Model the fold of this input.
Amino acid sequence: MTVTLSRQLDAAEKTQILKSHGRVCFATGHIIPEAETLEYDHIQAFSADGPSEIDNIAPMCSLHNRAKGALSLEDFRVKLRLEDFFRQGDAQTLKHLLDYFQDKEDIRAHGNPVIVQEKDGRVVIDMGLVQKSAELHTCPATGWKYFYATLPVDVLDSDDDDDTKAGLQPRYLIFDKVFGLYRHFQRHTVLQPAVGRVRGEHIVLFDGQHKVAALLWNGRREFECKIYINPDTRLLNDTNIAAHDQYSQTRFYSSVMVAKLGAEFGADFEKYKNEDDGAIKSEIGFTKFLAQDAAQMLTRADRNKRFRNYLFNAVLQHPDNRASRLVSNGNRSTDEKPLTIDMLSKSLFAGFLYSEPVADNMATEGYKRDDEINNVVALFNMLDDLALGGWNAKAGPNDGSQRKLNRLFRSKSIMAWSELLHDALCARLDLQDVEERVRPFYRHLDPIELEKVKRLVERLVKHKVWVAANDTEIDRTLADNKSVVKEWLKGHGLTTGYLLGAAE
Done:
């Protein structure tokens, strides 16, 4: 018979619990020293109808019992393990989680090869020792074939990029979303299947990775899936991007958008440049080429967006760009990675990377896009050499050097001083024409000219405004809009004239 607990455990009940669990903290499995006080709590929360019975009580160390707050012991244990998983980095996908589960021996395997065969309007999935059969469906819009099946984790993987093929996985896992869904699925059903495709001898998922991740933490080892067979990968990728962008309630990371769209656009761009059709090749010509391609079905706004992402990607993925290591994979900055795509698009990219297609013949010396990208990379490296190289995510609030960098690279701050730096650079390089000023780096810069740019950046980062004491006016001002921040900086001596050499 199950023993129902009173408000306080008696000695016999505690002995029975310790006999079942040992003197081990339920949260992490570590041994609780004899000198440390034991505490006891519900494994399944009492507030969530967890019974006050001996088999629902476990020992805890006092530290973890205080830290868990209102969570049940089981939820708190999962939260700690999830935090451990995310300490691997901020660019984790379902594949990384499956690897983690396999390393921890929570699952036997994942991504095992399969053979998928069509027969008499059905599909047979041969998983080695087990076969499954499912009805075969056809999409009326594309003609693609697909099937629904409940598949074991052993044969599933994430549709990530690998050494030979581009994947369709558009997002990274988000801690809060995985943990929230994990708790949600304890009481609620899953409304939609995960979506994937057959890639070679593997079944890979590109939609629903947060659901699968949350279910994994709940102990689920089989998953409801919708799987496409031999789809047009390019069109499926475009469909997936649209589903996770303009038609999504949760948009995916800007960095992933840049990489996905930039790489796809870049592949088309290279194809266009290498076409031997006798026509003059230019960026504007390429956008017209895309507009005439019925298979693309891209609006003008889509084409412009992809072109910008292509340029951003060229800078951020440039092998010489040292500062790109500090660009967050997410839409928000972190202690480790203070820069975001959104921040850069409104600051350094806005001022120094011309994002409109140009009409210059790409076969002539007048085409300077490669020079421009190299110049922007050089600017990133100057900022890294003179400031960002000292970024220390572990520094405390009283660290003066880190406080200075936090101020320099706050969102509104970088937007404001980028405009001042742009104006100073145009003056230093004697760029008077409107077209020259709107694309100041669209030219070859020799070492002497690059050194002039570096001196401007050096003046910027050395200004005394960044080194004020804690909790001063600058910290309050930097939370305001860009225009206010810019005027405040100018009012405190950080002007175009100062960057050009005038006294503070």
Q: What stands out?
A: The mean pLDDT is 86.
